[in-house]
Amino acid sequence: MSLSDWKIAKPESAGLQSEPLDALVKWLEGFDQANVHGVVVVRRGMLLFEHYRTGEDECWGVPLGKVAHGPESKHDLRSVTKSVTSLLLGIALERKLIDNIDEPILNWFPEYSDLRTPEKERISLRHLLTMSAGLEWDEYLPYTDPKNSEVRMLMSSDQYRYILEQPVVLPPGQVWNYNSGGSALLGAVIGKATGKALDDVAREFLLEPLGITDFAWTKKAKSGIPEVGGLRLRARDFAKIGQLVLAGGNWNGRQIVSRQWIGESTAAHIGPADRIYFYGYQWWQGRSLFNGREVPWVTAIGNGGQRIVVVPELDLVVVITAGLYANPMQAWLPLLIFNRYVLGAVVSEP
User: What is the DSSP string of 153-175?
Assistant: First the structure.
């Protein structure tokens, strides 16, 4: 893929003013602890602003030292990968490789028939998509704590058995609880439905149709299974994912993901009790105040400060990459960049 895939224009050509964006650059220059690696702003289908910085980074937990990030640098998506997996599932549904999302998850894993219980047979793909499967799972513990459920999953010899053997503690569909295990199961279902590894499905179904050929997907050392949050892309290619969602699944006149799935998966289906966001099918929904009114947006969120923010009302896509892994700043700093500086630069409607 050529870096010229995006039409590049000045902010003012699409209703943005440069001053707030210049102020963002200056602010970051005086705030090294922020460890922001990249900010990309797309509006009306044009790349209007991008800024990259040198900072400490990792690749799936392996330190990379100081990296001079730029347009050609690949970056961990971490749990933004979950949102990409949701897109892949939508494509598999459209191609009739998966019948429907209300099918019991255990139907896809006959090798674990010994784990079947009446309670677990009620857990469907829909419940995994909305993180409401009701399984006992705790990812709120620090990732340095061996009791963290995701850590236990990653350390297990059979991660899918580990996930499915967890007891059901709540009725499926009632309570949201962050669960990367459910996302791992969704990736496995896509693999079973297509007969291919998840990274190969992503290449065929999504990335190459978007013109993305330079990507990586971190895999487990022993099994070679793609990690649930292991996709690595360049920031400009992050933005292509956002633009695809903004355009209802269409890219340059080609319908890659059905408009119905984009609408359904990015709609609010459940309200996490401890968050200001709502949740769809592996996508988050939030809102900001713009010119005295609420403007809704859809976002993909990854550990470390990774964000794709899609604002349909403003025809706007924003990408942020950072190295704030296990740092509490990752929760508020990307939101501050988006609200104060990017929305602050918007001076006209689409």
Answer: HHHSSSHHHHHHTSPB-S-TTS-
